[in-house]
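Allow me, if you will, to draw on your knowledge of protein folds for a short while. The matter concerns a single protein, recorded as an amino acid sequence and a row of backbone structure tokens. Could you please explain, in whatever detail you think fit, how the structure tokens follow from the sequence? I remain grateful for any guidance, and I place the record below:

…
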Amino acid sequence: MGSLTPSPKPWIETPLIESSALSKAAGCRIFLKLENLQPSGSFKSRGIGALLLHSLLTHPNPHRVHFYCSSGGNAGLACVTAAKALDRAATVVVPFSTKPLMIAKIKNAGAYEVVQVGDNWKEADTYLREELLKKDEGGVYVPPFDNPEIWEGHSTLVKEVSAQLQEKGEEGADAMVCSVGGGGLLCGVLLGLEREWWGNSCAVLALETEGADSLNQALAHGNLVTLPGITSIATSLGATRVARKAFELSKTHDVVSSVLSDAEAAMGCWRLADDERIIVEAACGVNVAVCYGGRLKKLLPQLTPESKVVIVVCGGSNITLQTLMVYRMEYGWIEGTITDDEEVPSTLSAPTKGIDEYSKHLGWMDGDEWYEQDQ
């Protein structure tokens, strides 16, 4: 086996902050685990980074390793970011449906090459495996979520949370909230909780959006379910079939699976921006949305004002200010009267006009055209 000089791990310890605004809105103590601050902008730096590091440490010729990933989203960006930190090359193959913004971000992160092939992820992945990976003796395949090393990487998040809560004089969390796409993050959270003394008493709220709810449907049917397609705006949750490990762990742990609408996920994005000055994509906004309108206590009725809830702010790079403004105007109606608590900043900043009226007021293009161009 070849040797490799130990490298620094390609992810960082992220802050855990208690949010006054979200705590007031939710009626319990809300802590935010800021995974949006990872080098790639999302939690995937942990899992993908752990897989890359493990691959280098176990490869017979680590100096010839070239990583290959077929995700045009946050996993692809995490792969390139981690590979660069480990001084290795990474090629990403994406379908033609991938947005120019994400392609630009992957290239800017230092990709060896970004190849566009196929009409969907499966076609891009097939090309990567058959045309690129097979022809490179040093090639290492990087899946987006379904791999034990990735789950182990994500589990480090829980270890950090435990240590950070202790530093604050707290004894573990009463609940953790995370969104579910393919289930890699959920696997990591559940495996991490198994190793903490407070883990058995910590509920896990697993959130998805309508049209990207493969875990919820699998639990409802008692078997893995393959969705016919992804129709949610939370495209980073767009796994048509959740990882089997996530499904199995969810059945044996205290997991509450819930599905929110796109409108609620979008609401979580603009309210988090107003309340905490943090910008995230819809796949993360769904986690924050439960803090508003009594949603969290409806899903976890055992919570009290003193309960500690850790929300994984998973981040994501598929968001711009323009998209956030569209969310704000397009889905502002979801809260109706919002809330009477004027101590929550987003209560006072909630939109009162529809997107058409708002865009015309600013002298911009009409709302429909604006929306379509950004999507």
